[in-house]
């Protein structure tokens, strides 16, 4: 299982593209063009329409085309595992057109100045907004704006095949363009306040999950020091390796985040990710790592949103929901991600660094140590995990989408006898859960609104 997971992570997380730190000035500012709301089928692929009621929350979803000329890059010198990498511009003037999905407050006065720009994940052949799906509730509570960027060729090609009338102009000739496209997306956000309802941003944060996390690792180490596009990064669900610099070229097999970056980096890992990333664990003045115990690379909460969008777009398996042999992991990873974004926002604005966290306990960085209920020891411990009613594992099996279930994890309910042993009555369960939630809140791993939601769920739960 361990070998299979490492192989799958290598295949799914490895981008097919380019990396770089350029030593030339950025290209001219890209052009931004609004996509008419009724163009083509009438909604953004992988967007929120019919999945989330943004209007009821005071938010709007809009879509734009981003067009410009991008550079590609080559590696300069030896890339060692400390991440202090140099690159040179390989080609310039490569035309591209891609799309941005913007989710922002309808009332510009609600916008607090923070923009989260996500490198949309294409591991399954279509754009998936993983970090938006986990933390959209936090973004809305905080008044953030969100921008999802189609950054890779697979995502661009899928847009054109699913809705050619809406996305006929989209064109990314290869993943070698992806790093400069992501840099120019931040440039466009800063230069076009109309994207954000008319107000300029104060902080622009880059985020990405899985394959996108590997690309962000390379972006942070090689592109950010020269382009200075972002004010901070959340790198979610990475392995030890990084993305390659050119199409068809294997990237570095071991890559820490460079410690002289100048902007903060938050590395946020699920339990699925730790075996593949334990060799590059970091906690430094500008890099913070949390490993969230009991969580999976993807989970039930996100999968429910992906399935709903897929049923509408029919982008994978003709719209059929993804299924696995066992119930998918339902641990509340989103709570930790919400807290991570709050800390990163403050950190990028010059505030205090996030709290450190004990890593998940492992033997020789190969085997996760577990308690009598088969739950991991150590790590960031959310109340649903510290006061469990199930065993939460990082991998699943089977399923109708090849490779997906190995990353989705499992939830195995504890037996009624074991639950009664742990919690003799409902009051005992609620008291233990509330104490765990308050510990996580004090530690900084849980935000107050999520603490309150979690405790209300415990109070309503039929436990035992």
From TrEMBL:
Instruction: Please list which residues make up the signal peptide.
Output: 1-24
Residues in Alpha/beta hydrolase domain copies: 36-455
Matches recorded under Pfam families: Abhydrolase_10
Q: Which UniProt keywords apply?
A: Signal
The name on file for this protein is: Alpha/beta hydrolase domain-containing protein
Q: Superkingdom, according to UniProt?
A: Bacteria
Tell me the organism: Amycolatopsis vancoresmycina DSM 44592
